[in-house]
Fold this protein.
Amino acid sequence: MSDLVSPENVEPRSPARAARPHLWLTVLSLSAFVVLIALGVWQVERRAWKLALIDRVEQRVHASAQPIPSRTSWPAITAASDEYRHVSVAGRFLHDRETLVQAVTEEGPGYWVLTPLERADGTTILINRGFVPSERRDPSTRKAGNSDGQVAVTGLLRISEPKGGFLRDNVPQHNRWYSRDVAAIAVARGLENVAPFFVDADAGSQSAGGPIGGLTVVRFPNNHLIYALTWFALAFMLAGRLVVTFRGGLFRRKRFVHEPAGGLGASARRAGSDAGTIVEPT
């Protein structure tokens, strides 16, 4: 004979046990929502900071050239407060101590020509005179552009680039340079009293036959609005999914709690009928 199905033999599922996974899912989803909103707000703040930076740099680049900061103020120079200032300096180039730094510009691949400029007060400023292609790497190919007397240079103040370029370290002992590391170049060339920054020379500061100046790229990527919208979109998608899940779970719990007792008996009677046995609830 088939086993009889009765309501007493059916173990009811605890509502608390059924809701437990949904509770953890809700906690994790809310935590992720808060994190995504925080990331979006952070990108909005970063965008405001980036726009202010771009505005400051634009003002510096297009301002009239001012004398470079005095030696006493060198320790206080920072990228935030001083980089890309339009400055002027005068002195005499030490062409025999120039340094070539590998570069890729709108003119193609080649080198930056960094030449020390010795001033009357005994200090030295490293000047990025500009770009030369590989075929003009040898100084003898550009002697006509190398002045031996006093020169005046205007350009943009730049902060030193220590250690090297992207995935490529400077190798001073082999005269291979991938970044404009002022301190390392000063040591390699035996320079003293060197400013902790260098100057990118304007195009107008160069004589005929010299390096191509004025190629400084002043560009700051500003994708923060896109990032912010992405984080906010993910947050609201997660919130929508959470609402749908919560409402679906709440609907199922209501059905479970309010199903009349007769419902189980009717189901049992149908099951018993299918098996050839009539089951009556107690």
Summary: Confidence is low (pLDDT under 50) at residues 275-282. The beta strands are 66-67, 86-93, 99-105, 108-118, 124-133, 150-159, 164-165, 168-169, 194-201. Helices lie at 15-62, 79-82, 182-188, 224-258, 261-274. The chain has two domains: 15-45+224-274, 85-205.
